[in-house]
Amino acid sequence: MAKSRNNLLGVGGQRKKLSRADQQGAGSARVADRKVAEDKKQELVRRMRERAEAQTATTAEPGADENASPAQS
């Protein structure tokens, strides 16, 4: 173990140095890649929600019919 456990200098890596274009907000390919990845993630989440809703609707329909029949008798 190190002698000085309270000295955390250098822990956590270094910051990325920004290019002039990045500093001025021009953006780079990396920013575009992140946007594409975020769009794909949103599309995947949307499809998963649609499947979950369809599945709950399918399971809810037979349950509603079963509950309606004994109540009428």
Q: Helix coverage percent of residues? A: 55-70%
Q: Give a short account of the largest sheet.
A: none
* Average residue pLDDT: 76
How many beta-strand runs? 0
Instruction: Compute the separation of the termini in Å.
Output: 76 Å
Number of helices: 2
Give the uncertain stretches in residue-range form.
Answer: none
- Shape, per Cα inertia axes: elongated
How much beta, percentage-wise?
under 5%
Radius of gyration: 27 Å
**How does the helix and strand content classify structurally?**
mainly alpha
Oligomer: single chain
SSE ordering: HH
List strands and helices in order, with pairings.
Layout: H1 20-23, H2 29-72
Quickly list its features:
single chain; 73 residues; mainly alpha; 2 helices; 66% helix; 0% strand; elongated
Description:
With 73 residues, the protein is mostly helical. Helices cover 66% and strands 0% of the residues. The chain is elongated.
